[in-house]
Amino acid sequence: MSELMEAVRAGRTTYTLLLLTALSDSERRSYVPELKELRKELRTTRSGDYESARIQPALYLAGAACHSGAAAVAGWLAAADMRWGRAPTASVLRVLEHRDADWLADLAHRLAARPVAAEVPYPLMAELVRRAECEVPLTDAYVIGWIQHVSEGGDRSGLLDRLRGEPHLAVLVSGMFTLTDLREVRWLPADGPGAWQSALAELAGAGTLDRSVLLDGCVARLLRGGGPTDHRVFLPLLTRLEPDPREERARIADWAALARDAVSPVAAHAQSVLTALTLAGELTTRQLAEVSEGLLFRVEKKLVRAQLVLLGKVLARDPGAAAELLPVVAQAFGHEDSQVRERALKLVERYASRLDSVEELAWAADQLSPALRHRAAALLGLAEAPPEVYEEVLPPVPEPVRLPPAPKTAVEVAEEAGALLASGGADVAAYERTLDGLVRHAHRDPAALREALAPVVAGRWWTGSHAARWAPSSDPFGNSRYGTLAAGEGIDLLLATLHGKVGTDTLHAAVRRGPQEHPCPHSALSRVFDARLREVAYRIRTEPLPLLLATPTWGTGLLDPADLVARLAEYRRLDARVGEADFAQALLRLRTDDRAAVREAAVRARALGTREGERLARLLSGDTVPTGGRLARWLRGGSRACAGEPVRRRTKGERILVELGEVPELREGFPKAFRGLGLPVSAFGDRTRCHHWDDARRPHWTAVLPGRRELTAARLLPDLADTAMDHDRGTAVLPLLAEAGGEAGDAVHLCVAYGLGARRAEGRLAAVDALLVLAARGQLDAARLGSDLGRLVSGGAVKAQRLADALRTAAGTGAHATTWSVLRHTLPVLLTDLATASAANTALVRGVGELLAAAADCAERCGAHGELPHLADAAGRKGGSRMVTEARRLRAALTPREVAA
After folding, report:
1. Separation CA 78–CA 290 (nearest Å)
2. 628 with 715, same domain?
3. Would you give the distance in Å from CA 161 to the centre of its chain?
4. Residue 417 and residue 419: Cα distance in Å, rounded?
5. Could you tell me if 619 and 742 lie in one domain?
6. Is the CA virtual torsion 732, 738, 739, 744 positive or negative?
7. Which of 13, 16, 542, 600 has the fewest CB atoms within 10 Å, i.e. is most exposed?
């Protein structure tokens, strides 16, 4: 071995540098193959982190010196596997000092063109640019590297001095406005001595930077848009530059575009600029109308109201502008906020006499609520149309979807397994179908299946140098770290078993030991899911199953008895041994609502003459043997106690939870891992050790007991409560619960209640879907859901404004009557609170105003009438707050017109 390679392998970076400087170009090039081989060796062998860390700086330096082309050197210096073992920048520059300027410039631009994630050191790129005396590369990597380098270059108070000392300051600042990704810089402080915006504004004021260039750059970048927080970089800079009226007037078209299309903070700033210009007489009436057309379509109520206030001021000053401005004002008749609609109508009422013709406004009146439409019709002289007969619009009742048969070829199995791994495995139907396909083809022709799976398993974490993680002496569930499988990990386990990466002894021990227990409420569901996967993996290695018994017939997870009998017949024909966990899961998935099909399946099952066939026949026929009779009645839902009826509701802090009693039918005659399904569910169980954080698991839990959703919902309820208070995961399961079978009781309705108050909008959308599905199926208990929502909002578990947003979304689909039926039971609880000392809760007062507005909209649309407890007290309060205004509007909507007259 040469002296240089010995130095590199020994990790002697300083000596390596000394040897490299003494070599000629041709001698350096001769070492490239050996250096590449060493790099490959470090990537593919697990010699330990310390060993790699010791060698890599010397290897990094030698590679930079020995490659001849700038492209090859750039690839070496920016490689991901070399990132954590870089040699000092000074040493790299030392071995490159003999290169000419053009070569150094080429290298600098190639390094700067690398992604920001490559983390190429900025000092290296900057020094190459300086030595080459070339043009500064304005790439994301270079500009962001410069920003971070200057920001971290010492005391924040010295930022201004460091910027003054930058020779390429104007060029690099212009590069800030062309960055494609601001994630690395948008969190820079916008205030204080370290604020870039303040420093740049001061430099512009001193003439060091061109002020007009900065203004144009800020406006152009804000017009370009970007991420939801990108404005945090450029909006503060724009405000600190303090454009004068002349500069603002020159950009009227830009302010109008920002007010119409930009994110809310930017639109608010643009609106304030336009408002000042308007009041100063700098905007023509036509320009104001064009600006308002865009602003009045925005969803932010604050912006729309502010624009209506401005239009009112202009009309008061110049009533002759009504012809151009009132048609624009009328566009707000269709806004979702009732106060916006009423304010727009008041403006029209005040200045309509200035119009030669009101026909141009007639089209907009149809968008108003019935009460306001009546006023508009009287104002505009329109013939009031007879009231429409309200028709509730609910989504069609979901039809159960039959699962397609298992993939016929190994290639199809491989394709579906790849898609499942890429998606995370949350789709129950796709997961079960792929699982069945893997089992069938592993039994039929495992070699062909492995060949088809080759592209799928290439690069999986358990292949290649990482295969030792699932060595025969290790736990096959070690990758999940907590002894419980996520959906995708289950597929990985089967694939690794099929490819011989898991030892038989390990699998046997895992099956015998069973899934790990947790003190959390959904441990019982997780254990059933895990136990079946453990069993399948073990049988793939020892005695492959010909097919899976528990593969659902329907997308909801239900299994037709006839399909189970046919599969047991195939087992008998092949003289195969049934999987205990697979058969137990199949029993829990049985669909028993078609009594004729159940009786026929019982006869066919008994005719099989097998132990499993006889047990299935007893369960389907309801024979009165001790265990079989109880379980048969439970399967048919013949006993409310056996159906998992909540024993009682419990309050835990701000939460309302349910507790379930024991279900003895699930405690006898099932494998150990299944018996937890019959244990009582407590509202006060320990959840601190729960690691079921993967959202892809929850849909599979709904398929464990697809005909008994209350049992599942009670175990998911603490998670759903958390979505409204602590985190954002879990609501995606709500539509599945709504589509599942069994009674929709306290647990299901509480799950939906918490989902309607979820922190994130997408979580609330899932709850709205569940609400509408329950309503379409005739299973929504509006009184139960509404009163629970009232208690949850009153207690603080659900925020009223989030709930109002969700219910407005539900009503917006056409379900105004359904939404009102919920709100009419929610509002009395909250109005009662407001009548007591707890009315000091200003957040609750604001939230009740939002809920009253949603209720008034629904009542007006669906023609609801009647009394609402405590509404009169709220409507009779003094003042014009939103709560009082909406209470009065709701009272008017609930009062028949002839009575009000």
Report:
1. 51
2. no
3. 43
4. 5
5. no
6. positive
7. 542
| 437 domain residue, yes or no | yes
Residue 554 lies in a domain: yes
β-sheet bridge partners, residue 554: 402
Residues contacting 762, CB < 8 A, separation 6+: 731
Structure tokens at 717: 């309820």
Phi, psi of 402 (to 5 degrees): -80, 135
Which pLDDT score is estimated for 648? 77
- Specify the 3-state DSSP secondary structure of 794: helix
Pairing of the two strands 646-652 and 655-660: antiparallel
Residue 53 placed within a domain:
yes
Residues 269 and 306 sit within 8 Å (Cβ to Cβ) = no
End-to-end CA gap in the chain: 105
Query: pLDDT above 90 covers what percent of the chain?
Result: 48
In whole numbers, what is the pLDDT of the chain averaged over residues? 85
- What pLDDT score was predicted for residue 641? 38
Side-chain-facing half-sphere of 280: CA atoms under 13 Å: 11
Q: What is the DSSP string of 598-640?
A: HHHHHHHHHHT-SHHHHHHHHHHHT--SHHHHHHHHHHTT--T
- Contact by Cβ (8 Å): 213, 239: no
Helix 285-295 vs helix 264-279: crossing angle, to nearest 10: 160
Distance CA 117, CA 136 (A): 20
Same domain, 606 and 462: yes
What's the full length of the chain, in residues? 901
- Over residues 545-567, mean pLDDT: 94
DSSP-assigned beta bridge partners for residue 660? 646, 681
- 127 belongs to a structural domain: yes
Range of the domain at 795: 706-900
How many other β-carbons are positioned within 10 Å of the β-carbon of residue 783?
A: 13
The predicted pLDDT at position 803 comes to: 95
- Choosing from 137, 167, 185, the residue where a domain stops is 137
The CA distance from 527 to 867, in Å, is 50
> Rounded to an integer, what distance in angstroms lies between the CA atom of residue 267 and that of residue 271?
6
Name which of 736, 742, 701 is nearest 521 in CA terms.
Answer: 701
Taking residues 273-283, report their average pLDDT: 93
- For residue 874 the two structure tokens come to 């709220």
Cα separation, 566 vs 586, whole angstroms: 13
